[in-house]
Each structure stands twice: as structure tokens, then as C-alpha cells.
Amino acid sequence: MKSLTNQSYPYPVTRNATYAKNGMVATSQPLASQAGLEILKKGGNAIDAAIATAACLTVVEPTSNGIGGDAFALVWTKGELHGLNASGRSPKNISIDAVKEAGYEEIPKYGWMPVTVPGAPGAWAELSEKFGKLPLTEVLQPAITYASEGFPVSPTLSKFWNKGYSTYKKSLTDDVFKNWFQTFAPNGRAPKAGEIWSSPDHAETLRSIADTKAESFYKGELAEKIATFSKENGGFLTAEDLADFKADWVEPINVNYRGYDVWEIPPNGQGIVALQALNILKGFEFTDKESVETYHKQIEAIKLAFTDGQKHVTEDNHMRYTTEEILSEAYADTRRKLITDEAIQPEAGEPSSSGTVYLATADNEGNMVSFIQSNYMGFGSGLVVPGTGIALQNRGHNFSMDPNHVNALEGGKRTFHTIIPGFMTKDNQPVGPFGVMGGFMQPQGHVQVVMNTIDFGLNPQAALDAPRWQWMKDRVVEVENRLAHHLALELANKGHDIRISLEPNSFGRGQIIWRDPETGVLVGGTESRTDGTVAAW
């Protein structure tokens, strides 16, 4: 790596990297960043700050996440990296046959069918119990205050809120969805930038979660309200499903990329896709970022890794191939040999058997957190539990209705999950957390910012500001309009179906915090494609 802190990018950027010594919080929303910083200044650690920021984001960025969503975390503390999988399972009584009997050939996006058990409240409680310094009641207070007293809606949030409202107004006409409109469009429209929005029900729910360490959400009053709403409207989710939820501590997985260990949460998350792509790419040498060969090989590696992920990855105990087999050097070499000078039509290989928010935090004690949570597809299922402000996720939409697929819908199963936190270390010492949110863009964003950092020496802000691309399907690749025109033409000449996008938010939204190993100085970058902010002191 040429530099962690100084190298800039030769394209115009909206801001410089942020430097600090005592603590840092990077998110897509300024108020949430400040909430995390407030907790650090009160004596909380990076874990407390991450929880506070995550809870606050359910209020100040409801278009991307909520109390009714899932979460994952990578936590560096006391010389070790810990992984937390707080994704919920499908209801025990759901099945492919049951969905078909209800009149569906595919799992719908909205309503009760795609709803899985929410994991975010359990993640907050588990992180607080294991690593936090401050009581959960104090850590969740900033979010409670914003929910009860209201906050001015930010510009990018207003844009996506209106987009979500327009979609739901056309699609969600049944009475079961009325609570969503009462909660998120109380004036018959989405709030505009600068308007104050509040949700007293959301505040009371957060207060209950804080007071009971999330017990009320899974076994108490809130669980009863969720289960009753489900039963009254033909949902499969029950009180028993909620009571059985448990966030799991897991061993993070990694590959070594040019001397740096890049870490992800193991399946059911799609972080393995990013690691497999990096495993393929480390067999090539890259000297120039703005080269058609660099972009071409990155795209081809992602295509190969993604097709494997979509065929082979689900909850780990349902996978036909192990993580070790998929990330083996031998399999990477086999996949690498498929990359030629022309764009390929990707197909999954067979390893031999031998709508999301991301945040990063760091403190002056050495703790660092990579945290991500989501309702999926913006606001999620379109369901809001009456009297709670809880918008339920629609993560079950990712299940396959093919009974022979590894990710086939089954009762009590975790689906192939898009949200993934990332972390980087070198020589068993932390470099820091990173992440790029945005559905299936996420592993592609991980690969791009890791290579921007390691191969091309860009600092965190420059690594995030650099133009991005996104493989969509087959040979279709979307590129930002900031990508040099001649590179787009050269990629097209290699057989890529290049489509220039004018929508910057379709390329994900990222955050990065690195720590200088010698001085302890923190350097952070935040997403210039949204309302991102690095709060530091």
C-alpha cells in the first residue's frame, strides 16, 4: 500500500479525508454521526457509538433501515476481531407449498410473505452486553429524542422518501398497509427537505428496547403486538418465531490480498463474493487505476464470484460447498483462467469437494466497529406494526422458490443476505472498518474500495470518491457518468454492454476509517453521493 493517509484522486471531489485522534463516526446521515460522537464524548466506546448511531439511523434514515430489519457487525477490540450475525430466520411454518397455496409463484416484495424475524434490536442488545461501557438506556437516548421531538429531513433522504412513497402509493392499496402511510406520509405525501418529521410510536418502541435490553421486542409487549398483527392479517410470523431469535457470534472469514487481510462475515452473507473476487484478482498485477485492463479484470472477477455466490451461498449449514472450498487458492486459479481479453457470459463453477445503512466507528482505546443494518428494498415490506412505528423488513424476498436450490425457502432458515460489513488488518493489527451499502452493489463496492486503497494508494475519501461501476447481469455493466468516456468505449469494445447511469446513489454509499499504526491517528472518508458525514474529535 502506497499510503493510508495522503494520496488523493485526480478527479474533483467534494471533500477531503477527515483526521482525528480521539474518536470518529462515519455514516450517511449527519445527525446520526453526531449522535455517535456524543456517546463517545460521554465516555462510551466505539461499540456504544455504533449502537447509538445505528439506532439513530432507524429514525433519521428510515428509507434504508429500521427497527424491523437485520444487522451484522465486525468488532475489533482487545486485539481480536469478532463477528456478529443478527439476521433473522424465516417463520417456522412457512414453506414453498404454503406460499404457492396463498396464490404466489414467486415470493412477493411486499406484505407478510417476505417478512423474516427482525435482528437489529437483538444486535444492539448483544453488542451492548458483550462490549459496551454505557447502559443501553443512555446509548439509545439520542435516537429516542429525534423520534419523539422530530428532526429536519435531509435532501437525499427526502428524495428517496418521495421515491418510496410514490412506489408504495401505486402498489400498496390493501388496508394492511395503512399504518405505513399514517407513519411515513402523515400529510398525504413524503416530507420535503427541511421539514420536521417525528414518530412518537417509534420513540416509545426504542425506549422499551432500551429498558428491557430488547427482551420486550422478542418475548414481551412488542413481540405480542408484532405477532398479533401477523395473525390478524394471514402472516406466518408468530410469537414463537420471535422468542426463538438469537444473534450469533461467528468467526469472520478472510483472504490475504497483497499482504492485507480483508475480513467479512461468513455465509449467509454475500461477503464471500467480495473475498472470492479479490482472491481471483490477486493473481494479476495492477499499476494504473484508470486503465481499461484494470476495469475489465475487476468486472470479470466480480461476474465469476457473483454467479458462484448466487448458486452456492445460503445459510452455511445448507451449502453444498464449504467456505474454505470456495475461497481456496486452487479454485481461484481455476476461475482466474476463465478471464480473457473479452467479456464473458458468466456461469457458476463447481468447487472441488476437498432500499441499507453502513457505519464505522473508532475510539481512542483501539476499538473499531464495522456495522450494517437494513430493512431491504428501501422501507421494506410496507408493513408497520400498529402503535409501534416498527417497519418490517422484506428480506425473505431473496429466498428461491426452487426446492432444489441451496437458498430454497424453508421454515426457520436464514436467506442469502446482501448486507455485509468489511474490515481490514495487516500483520494481525487493525487497519480499520469499511463498507459500501446498496443491495448487490455491496461486494462490488468492497472490491473497488479495497483495490483503490491497496493497489492504488488512495486515502479513504479518495477511495470512496473514485468513479464506480456495477455489474448487473450477463455482460451488462453500469458505470457512473464520471468514468472517462474513452474507458467506457474501450470496455464496450471488449464485449461489455456498457450503460452510463446518471443516478449516483445506484452505486452504493460507503464509509471508511483507517488507523495509522504508528501514531494512532484516525483518517476517515464518507460518501459524497449522499448526505454522508464524518464526526470526529
TrEMBL record:
Protein name, UniProt field: Glutathione hydrolase proenzyme
Superkingdom to which the source organism belongs: Bacteria
Gene3D superfamilies assigned to the protein according to its UniProt record, in alphabetical order: 1.10.246.230, 3.60.20.40
Pathway: Sulfur metabolism; glutathione metabolism
Listed EC numbers: 2.3.2.2, 3.4.19.13
An example molecular function term from Gene Ontology annotations: leukotriene C4 gamma-glutamyl transferase activity
The record's account of how the chain is modified after translation: Cleaved by autocatalysis into a large and a small subunit.
Reaction equation(s) it catalyzes: glutathione + H2O = L-cysteinylglycine + L-glutamate; an N-terminal (5-L-glutamyl)-[peptide] + an alpha-amino acid = 5-L-glutamyl amino acid + an N-terminal L-alpha-aminoacyl-[peptide]; an S-substituted glutathione + H2O = an S-substituted L-cysteinylglycine + L-glutamate
This protein's encoding gene: ggt
Record-linked SUPFAM superfamilies: N-terminal nucleophile aminohydrolases (Ntn hydrolases)
Family recorded in the similarity comment: Belongs to the gamma-glutamyltransferase family.
Keywords linked to the UniProt accession: Acyltransferase, Glutathione biosynthesis, Hydrolase, Transferase, Zymogen
Entry-linked Pfam families: G_glu_transpept
Oligomeric form and interacting partners: This enzyme consists of two polypeptide chains, which are synthesized in precursor form from a single polypeptide.
